Amino acid sequence: MTRTTTRLAFAALVVATLTLAACGDDDTTAGTASAPRTVEIEMRDIAFSPDEVDVQASETIRFVFHNKGAVAHDAFIGDEAAQDDHEMEMREMGGMGDSDGAQDAMDDDGGITVMPGETGEITHTFSEDDNLLLGCHEEGHYAGGMRIMINMT
């Protein structure tokens, strides 16, 4: 083999190795209770971003909410019936955004309120039969589509 042929073969090997490495999965390790996977969520106007999250059964996810909007936002995890119940509770309470400006602690029922410019979080371990979503129940937000679909994969 000539020196040029050897160099070309080596270059081809390097390119093939890098290509195969790039085709590998990103970190697909599911979050655990001791090491949850973090999902960053932005809250703006009447929208979450992203508006959809894929999770695995038995996976623990730490949702970190950053309120980039000008009004308070609620984040509540539950199935559709729980979302409806929470919506009614929020209406009866007049919304959580009327608080003193500090982030409210996580409610016993799986929800938090995040004031403008603040950050809050919810950690949840998903079950195989979960059919959950995250919703904001400040007045008009849930009806306006402010929810995150949670897809079991």
Main sheet: strands, sense, barrel: 5 strands, mixed
**How large, in whole angstroms, is the Cα Rg?**
22 Å
CATH superfamily: Cupredoxins -  blue copper proteins
Number of helices: 2
User: Strand tally, please?
Assistant: 9
Q: Enumerate the strands of the largest sheet in spatial order, edge to edge or round the barrel.
A: 3-9-8-5-6
CATH architecture: Sandwich
Any idea of the CATH class? Mainly Beta
Q: Give start-end ranges of low-pLDDT stretches.
A: 10-27, 97-108
Q: Could you tell me the mean pLDDT?
A: 81
CATH topology: Immunoglobulin-like
Question: Helical proportion?
Answer: 10-25%
Tell me about this structure.
With 153 residues, the protein is an alpha+beta fold. Helix content is 23%, strand content 32%. The chain contains 2 helices and 9 strands. The chain has a 5-stranded mixed beta sheet, with helices on one face. Strand 1 and strand 2 form a beta hairpin. The longest helix is centred in the first third of the chain and has 21 residues. The radius of gyration is 22 Å and the shape is globular. About 20% of the residues have low confidence.
Keywords:
153 residues; alpha+beta; Immunoglobulin-like; five-stranded mixed beta sheet; 2 helices; 9 strands; 23% helix
Question: Quick recap of the structure?
Answer:
This protein is an alpha+beta fold.
SSE layout and pairings?
Layout: H1 3-23, E1 37-44, E2 47-49, E3 52-55, E4 60-67, E5 73-78, H2 80-93, E6 111-114, E7 119-125, E8 133-135, E9 147-152
Parallel strand pairs: 1-4, 3-9
Antiparallel strand pairs: 1-2, 4-7, 5-6, 5-8, 8-9
